[in-house]
């Protein structure tokens, strides 16, 4: 173990590589950037291999490649792409700062474990992303953008025909008709990517502002009828789609189910941060689609997805020949770009809390008040 320089804040990042996770929470360019701000970086061996960053790349940038035990012993702050296990939380020194996505909106037991370990915990999912000062910290936006791009590539690969219209010696091939449900960051990226591949694209979202956003990308906005438009108009806080009432949900589902039969590919991207995703396409809608159609459910999870019948990390083919791809890990499939973006988000969040050479919480700061879910010395009541 190297002797710690007490004049520098030590920032540690573990390798989180697994069968479904290839992203890294720190990239070599961010190591250089943090060093200029008085932060020294420790990375676990192999941290960036899934995103094609070698240990030597980190060392050249100024980081030290260390063991997991060394990081636990020396780091003042640690950051995660995913969520650290409760076993790992108990191994941290009291007072360690932990940055990551904790599912803190719904998992009270996990938040309690952060408090019981006497950690300072910053929940990335709680970032007030509508603030201009928060934009560079917004990992949800950066990772959803990557996921929307990858969703279209997965759909195109699974679809048994061309996306663009093509004129060949054997005749003209019509373009694929693609519907994107949810016009947030992931949805808009999916719309733009599908358009670039030459598909005829339609988008839909319950937020009134979504229509102009969809149409600005050259796509059509799905018309569900005057009744649905009147009842469902609304937008949630922070730019997210709000949760729908039972009546609104039933109207939307019935209308979308009916329209689904017109499309070759459907991509669903509607998520409510930290909560169960809404069902946008029911079994009836799936059954009405033509044989060979493809559905990519970006919100598929153990808690359910946007599409009835989707299974996370599996491709399900219905009796009617419709493929449903449950894909919650799409950003990991573009690991280099996703790592570069999330590393910047995490680092900028760290630097936000770095004041006068030390990490601290400002109770009057709107970002601090929103994101800090545990502080050293605080215990679960």
UniProtKB/TrEMBL annotation:
<dbReference type="InterPro" id="IPR036291">
    <property type="entry name" value="NAD(P)-bd_dom_sf"/>
</dbReference>
<feature type="domain" description="Alanine dehydrogenase/pyridine nucleotide transhydrogenase NAD(H)-binding">
    <location>
        <begin position="156"/>
        <end position="326"/>
    </location>
</feature>
<keyword id="KW-0547">Nucleotide-binding</keyword>
<dbReference type="InterPro" id="IPR007886">
    <property type="entry name" value="AlaDH/PNT_N"/>
</dbReference>
<feature type="domain" description="Alanine dehydrogenase/pyridine nucleotide transhydrogenase N-terminal">
    <location>
        <begin position="12"/>
        <end position="147"/>
    </location>
</feature>
<dbReference type="GO" id="GO:0008750">
    <property type="term" value="F:proton-translocating NAD(P)+ transhydrogenase activity"/>
</dbReference>
<keyword id="KW-1278">Translocase</keyword>
<dbReference type="InterPro" id="IPR007698">
    <property type="entry name" value="AlaDH/PNT_NAD(H)-bd"/>
</dbReference>
<dbReference type="GO" id="GO:0050661">
    <property type="term" value="F:NADP binding"/>
</dbReference>
<dbReference type="Pfam" id="PF05222">
    <property type="entry name" value="AlaDh_PNT_N"/>
</dbReference>
<keyword id="KW-0520">NAD</keyword>
<comment type="similarity">
    <text>Belongs to the AlaDH/PNT family.</text>
</comment>
<comment type="function">
    <text>The transhydrogenation between NADH and NADP is coupled to respiration and ATP hydrolysis and functions as a proton pump across the membrane.</text>
</comment>
<dbReference type="GO" id="GO:0005886">
    <property type="term" value="C:plasma membrane"/>
</dbReference>
<dbReference type="Pfam" id="PF01262">
    <property type="entry name" value="AlaDh_PNT_C"/>
</dbReference>
<dbReference type="GO" id="GO:0006740">
    <property type="term" value="P:NADPH regeneration"/>
</dbReference>
<dbReference type="GO" id="GO:0016491">
    <property type="term" value="F:oxidoreductase activity"/>
</dbReference>
<keyword id="KW-0521">NADP</keyword>
<dbReference type="InterPro" id="IPR008143">
    <property type="entry name" value="Ala_DH/PNT_CS2"/>
</dbReference>
<protein>
    <recommendedName>
        <fullName>proton-translocating NAD(P)(+) transhydrogenase</fullName>
        <ecNumber>7.1.1.1</ecNumber>
    </recommendedName>
</protein>
